Amino acid sequence: ERPTISVNPAHVIAPINDNTYGGFTEHMGRCIYGGIYDPGNPLSDERGFRRDVIEAMKELRVPVVRYPGGNFVATYHWVDGIGPREQRPRRRELAWIGVETNEFGTDEFLQWCEEVGTEPYICLNFGTGTLDEALGWVEYCNATSDTDYANLRRRNGRDKPYNVKYWALGNEMYGAWQVGEMTKEDYAKKAYQWAKALKLLDPSIILILCGQDGFSSWDAHVIKECIRHDVHGVNPEKGCHSLIDMHSIHLYTASSDHLCNVTAPLAAERGIEIAAGLIDLARIENKVPPSVPRQKICFDEWNVWDMFRAPGEQGAEERYTLSDALAVAVWLNVFVRQARYIGMANIAQSVNVISPLMTNPGGIVKQTTWWPLLLFSRYMRGDALAVHLRCAEYEGPTKPEWIRGTVATPWLDVSVSLKDGIVALAVVNTHPDEDLAVDVQGAKGPVEVFTVTGDRLDAVNTEEAQQVGVKESNWDGQGCYVFPKHTFTLLRWPAS
Ligand code: AHR
């Protein structure tokens, strides 16, 4: 049978949240220092912000950026990073075993976000931090009252509030690598109490619960305990219906075997589906009224990360291949297909650390993974559409094995969107050596075509040579479209 992809613009699944294309900047390796902040470099502005990085973030249209960790946040005291620079303490840092100078802190980050035109998303310290500190941080960022932390912000030169909407209740608190590692029972109790106090202070904030990967007993427990019919702390008149607004999950995938590399992100799809089911179950068991908006998934760390190629303690500067770029395109297809559950997703990370964007003292390098991210952020917005796919399948193992095992996986990985009357079809041909001719039902010429590929699956981009980029062409929409081997293709045509 001939392979087919059928698309119908009337078959809308759900809106794609713009925050699907979010970023993440952690005090880790060269993400902040030497990445977004590089004082003295001729490429930086008077505040030390790298202008070329800001331009790149604007080009990517990054809607939201998570900060300051990650693991870093578990021993971070935000007060160290505000006020006159010369008075800020240098501290030992226990996540990546370094020294934090605190030259770059809350005001710098929030002003950088304003410059980029992106929303900040702050993660609270659930390790050595206290609830008082967390309340102080929210007050410092958001309050207009004549109170201590709001006045401290004013004294530091910032009169109007920053209005930081997104706040996370800790990071990976289940992990043995965390200062402050907790049992799921202890975490659920603490997160719920913090959420109550934080929402009493500022009912306009969106709170994100710390989950694991979506398919763990940690997720099941914390969702069941924290997604409840809340009575105290909520304020429906101010739009605050529940203490917890989103559940966060993390996953990194990688394999030196191409087929395992490109199929591994499908484990994240299971994680999203399972976590969404756990949320539904908690809402039913805890009798959460339907008037409370359904809590979404915040996939606030995702990417291809091979810990051997790019160890964390060394700044995780991974050099990405074409195979990795195709894996990133599959990751993004997952988020579009799961649009009904995704409230936010953040590639980890935005600069230098496991990132599509690398800096050096004289400029930036766009890695292979930059190109699918750019095309998705530019074109895969609006509504996600249902798609029917029929094609031959890969029947080998997928990783991690305990999630999907050996199941048949179509050689083509596909998602579709509709925005402003234009259909966009994203297709990854994961096959290492076969082109696939496909009957694209519903496509109408003229079709704009964007192709990301390279000569070899291990092609990389460096300062010297960009082996992987985007090629633009056109197709008249007649007959079959041939998706070349190991290629990511995005087709766009008018819906009517
Ligand atoms: O993104 C790198 C690290 O990976 C983060 O600090 C942590 O949350 C995760 O384990």
Automatic annotation (TrEMBL):
Q: What class of enzyme is it?
A: hydrolase
Q: Which GO terms describe its biological process?
A: L-arabinose metabolic process; polysaccharide catabolic process
User: Among its keywords, does the record have Hydrolase?
Assistant: yes
**SMART domains attached to this UniProt entry:** Alpha-L-AF_C
Q: What EC number(s) does the entry state?
A: 3.2.1.55
Catalysed reaction(s) here are:
Hydrolysis of terminal non-reducing alpha-L-arabinofuranoside residues in alpha-L-arabinosides
Q: Does the keyword Hydrolase apply?
A: yes
In UniProt terms, what function does this protein have?
Answer: Alpha-L-arabinofuranosidase involved in the degradation of arabinoxylan, a major component of plant hemicellulose. Acts only on small linear 1,5-alpha-linked L-arabinofuranosyl oligosaccharides.
- Source organism's superkingdom? Eukaryota
Query: GO terms for molecular function, please?
Result: alpha-L-arabinofuranosidase activity
Which InterPro entries has this protein been placed in?
Alpha-L-AF_C, ASD1_cat, GH, Glyco_hydro_b
Q: Which Pfam families match?
A: Alpha-L-AF_C, ASD1_dom
Q: Which residues form the Alpha-L-arabinofuranosidase C-terminal domain?
A: 300-487
UniProt source species = Echria macrotheca
Name under which the protein is recorded: non-reducing end alpha-L-arabinofuranosidase
- Name the family the entry cites: Belongs to the glycosyl hydrolase 51 family.
Pathway assigned to this chain's UniProt record: Glycan metabolism; L-arabinan degradation
Question: What keywords is this UniProt entry annotated with?
Answer: Carbohydrate metabolism, Glycosidase, Hydrolase
